[in-house]
Amino acid sequence: MLLIDTYLDKSPIQGMGVFAKHDIAKGTVMWRLDERFDRLIEVHVYESMTGPVKSYLDRYCYPRRSDPRFIVFEADDARYMNHADDPNFGFVSENEAVALRDVTAGEELTCDYNVFFEDGFDFLGDR
Fold it and tell me: Shortest CA distance to 19 belongs to which of 83, 92, 109, 99?
């Protein structure tokens, strides 16, 4: 779950993006996995899906590297975060992310998708 105030808007990177409502100082904890809301979906359930549901999961979920039996579906707008090679949002553990630098209000929040995949990122359906 995002722990900072954000909004969705059209992204210059791709489609929709997540943007900071306020300035965020470097080192601020911005996100924490919260299993009360964020869902861990068993891979066999994911693989049994077809059609629009499967396409949606392919687009908005990522593998749980510490336990490959699951994929992660974030319950909030964090699932719309786009990739950047030089992101402003970074994972200090699988369950927590911080601001890697100062972020200004209105700036798009980005992360490096490669942290979710051992061999470089793909959307799930592209694996």
Answer: 109
Q: pLDDT tens-digit profile of 16-56?
A: 999 999 999 999 999 999 999 999 999 999 999 999 999 99
Instruction: State the sign of the Cα–Cα–Cα–Cα dihedral 84, 90, 15, 124.
Output: positive
Tell me whether residue 58 is exposed, middle or buried, using C-beta atoms within 10 angstroms of its C-beta: 0 to 12, 13 to 18, 19 or more: middle
Q: pTM of the full predicted structure? A: 0.83
CA end-to-end distance (rounded Å), the chain: 26
Which single residue is written with the structure tokens 């809301």? Answer: 37
**Cα(61)–Cα(123) distance, integer angstroms:** 8
Number of Cβ within 10 Å of residue 41's Cβ equals 16
Q: Are 92 and 114 in contact (CB under 8 A)?
A: no
Cα–Cα dist 37/8, whole Å: 19
